Amino acid sequence: MIHWVLYSASYGGFGFSREFEAVFAERFPEKCELLESSSSRRTRTDEDVIALVRELGLHRSSGPCARLEAFPVHAELLSAVRIEEYDGLETAHVDEQRLFVQMFVELMASDGGMASLEATRAKYARVRQLLADQNIIEQTHVFEASPRK
Asked: How many helices (H) and strands (E) does the chain have?
């Protein structure tokens, strides 16, 4: 399953337009706290936020200095997405090192037996396949506006 992570591809930093905030607050009053911390990981990946950005479009959803973009990522790699920022300009990518460090930490925390080693080998193979799939996902998935009703 593909998930989307929002980031800002301009030097203005991450933020939503007033129009987006007004529509979001009207439709999802119970989630208004997401707008207060708009640059949080939870906000950037929230399904309702993503759906509304799709509906309004990236341009109309972007704040005054932002240019929102959506990064496609396989669901199993979502925790390894890293957003790096320089002077407001953000880039998103899967941090492979983070994935392998997590696997190493899990292996070290285990009993160290052959079963743990085999499980780690299987997980390593799965992660390598996911990363290969992720490269294809990044090249082929386009964040499109949802059709108007």
From this structure: 7, 4
